[in-house]
Design a protein that fits this description.
Elements (H helix, E strand, L loop, with lengths): L25 H11 L7 E5 L5 H8 L4 E6 L2 H11 L8 E5 L2 H10 L4 E6 L9 H10 L2 E12 L7 E2 L2 E9 L2 E8 L12
Parallel strand pairs: 1-2, 1-4, 2-3, 4-5
Antiparallel strand pairs: 5-8, 6-7, 7-8
Helix pairs in contact: 4-5
InterPro entries: DNA_methylase_N6_adenine_CS, RNA_MeTrfase_RsmD, SAM-dependent_MTases_sf
Pfam families: Cons_hypoth95
Organism: Thermoanaerobacterium thermosaccharolyticum (Clostridium thermosaccharolyticum)
């Protein structure tokens, strides 16, 4: 694994041996950030089910203002912290060692909202359902914010979760990226349509 672009471009990321973690492929990661484009600059980014932090670190490398990494598995926290050190500055990286639902509640209570939320749970377990419902309930997206769920092609996501509406789907082999926005903002005038 490596950082694809930005200030940490080319730097290799640490990852635990074996199959305990399923890292996002470089192809999917590059396609993801091509879609996000200029939205990444100065954004507040949330990397849920962070694993080794690959997606959040890519976001920071490309100009995100701040990224919160949320990971429950203690062993993975070490890899996230080690990988964050590849960046020139670690001040805008916040690592939370906690369950995803607890973290979403924490953001709600502290009025922390996000421009982009990335959800990449283990495949085949429907672990994206409750986070999507809670993000909607807690209103954790900024006005024009959106969510990206990485999932297996056999995991079928609903068109709506609470007030979140599916707005885009991109397939890359067996991996799918599904995008959601608040339904009220789905057709809002924005600088770049998802």
């Amino acid at each position: 694994m490596r950082v694809i672009s930005g200030k940490a471009k080319g730097r290799k990321l640490k990852c635990p041996p074996g199959k305990a973690i399923r890292p996002t492929s470089d192809m999917v990661k590059e396609s993801l950030f091509n879609i996000i484009g200029a939205d990444i600059y100065n954004s507040r980014f949330l990397d849920l089910f962070s694993g080794t932090g690959s997606i959040g670190i890519e976001a920071l490398s490309r100009g995100a203002n701040i990224c919160y990494f949320v990971e429950k598995v203690f062993n993975n926290i070490k890899y996230i912290n080690d990988n964050i050190k590849l960046l020139d500055s670690t001040d805008n990286a916040k690592v939370l060692h906690m369950d995803v639902l607890d973290a979403l509640y924490y953001f709600s209570k502290n009025d922390i909202k996000f421009d982009i939320i990335y959800i990449d749970p283990p495949y085949y377990k429907n672990l994206y359902v409750e986070p999507l419902n809670k993000i909607s309930e807690y209103k954790l997206l900024d006005s024009y914010g959106y969510i990206i769920v990485e999932h297996h092609k056999n995991d079928i996501l609903n068109d709506k979760y609470g007030n979140l509406q599916k707005v885009r789907v991109r397939k890359y082999g067996e991996t799918v990226l599904t995008f959601y926005k608040e339904a009220a903002n789905e057709y809002s005038s924005v600088s770049r349509e998802l």
